[in-house]
Amino acid sequence: MLRLFVARQVVPALPRDERYRLGDQLLRAARATTANIAEGYRRFHYLDNAKFCSNARSSCWEVLDHLITGNDESSPGSGL
Q: In the chain, N or C terminus with fewer CB closer than 10 Å?
């Protein structure tokens, strides 16, 4: 859901110049979330899976940070 939300709703709403900067970072982080979960699935040792799940959680936080940054920089009075 996160990946689709970012790709279909957030990136198209970004200003044109930010679609290639912030949009690219958002898409990469959102895709990394599901990719890490898939890569960790069915690992032979639970610690391997835990590491990939930790990476996925970090990618979710990265998406959140990018969304907050984009919102802050586009708010009135920000100079952008």
A: N
